[in-house]
Amino acid sequence: MTLLRALRRHALIRRIGEAVLTLLGVSVITFVLLRVVPGDQITASYGTAAGELSPEQVQALESYYGLDKPIVLQYLDWLGGVLTGNLGVSSTSHLSVLSMTQQALPNTLELAVLATLVGLLLGVPGGVFAASRPGRPGDSATQGVSLFALSIPAFLLATVLSTWFANNLGWYPNGEGYRTLLEDPLLNLQQMALPALVMGVGIAAPVLQTARTAILTVRGEDFVRTARAKGVPRRRLQTKHILRNALIPVVTMTGLQFGFLLGGALVVEQIFAIPGVGRQVLLGLDQKEYAVVQSTVLVIAALFVVVNLLTDLLYRLIDPRVRTR
């Protein structure tokens, strides 16, 4: 009991335990939801011809896909495979889900990193600008623009931008076939430009609001008033005392948004034909590829959990006040 209490008190171990439970819950929910949706791999593979199959053929196909087993055994078989590194095999491409994910994941990570950079470049300066004019027209206009950007659906902005650039400028590099950063760096960055902008605009708004609120809060702290009374130069006061402390919640918000980008890139990847894990899930759903969808969603959830854990650790390094919690 003493050991258990000590483990509960240790923040890192406690969060790792919570992460494991979260992933277990995600695996169960994903597994069940896929089987609640009408249809299965047989109907997805054969379409209307599935109705012409004989009972013996249906039974053989169910045995081949493992659909003849109780759902609990299906889940345990899949989970056991995942724990041993076997994420399953795509019945359409006959490739292992692990190899498919290894090819798709770097593309999604690159897109998420670029979108995060765009969001920070737009959100942090916007938050600083708005906080420097609280209650003034500039503050209201900045917040209004950020809320408007947040309300635009990603699929709509992606469609509008890609159509406008293609029709008016004749520029749509995504139509040339995707190239990775190693294959063709210049073309790759061009293909990532619009998707990163679309997703970056979506996270710029919460980053802006977080930065603005944090700056205004820190500005009213006692240590800032003390530094101002001691005659600390204005630039040093803004950068070292106010902005540095205000960036702590921005780091947390950025980490959360980066995690959401990993799973929320599905629509953007599909529109811009980027072969990432989001598009892999979408294609798997279309083909009722249980193994592809289940394992890919679990990988995305694991990345989300890891990013949140790293964000929490970084937060503790930046802010010593929370290290003992």
Structure description:
It is a single chain. The protein is built from 14 helices and no strands. It has 325 residues and is an all-alpha fold. It is 76% helix and 0% strand. The mean pLDDT is 82. It has helices at 2-9, 11-36, 41-46, 55-65, 71-83, 97-131, 137-151, 154-168, 185-219, 222-229, 234-264, 266-271, 277-286, 290-318.
List keywords for this structure.
325 residues; globular; mainly alpha; 14 helices; 0% strand
The proportion of residues forming helix, as a percent range, comes to: over 70%
Radius of gyration: 24 Å
Strand content: under 5%
Overall geometric form: globular
Low-pLDDT windows of residues: none
What can be said about the biggest beta sheet?
A: none
Number of distinct beta strands:
0
N-to-C order of helices and strands: HHHHHHHHHHHHHH
Number of helices: 14
Mean pLDDT across every amino acid position: 82
End-to-end span in angstroms? 21 Å
Backbone structural class: mainly alpha
Short description:
The protein is mostly helical. The protein is built from 14 helices and no strands.
Give the topology.
Blueprint: H1 2-9, H2 11-36, H3 41-46, H4 55-65, H5 71-83, H6 97-131, H7 137-151, H8 154-168, H9 185-219, H10 222-229, H11 234-264, H12 266-271, H13 277-286, H14 290-318
Helix pairs in contact: 2-14, 6-7, 6-9, 6-11, 7-9, 8-9, 9-11, 10-11, 11-14, 13-14
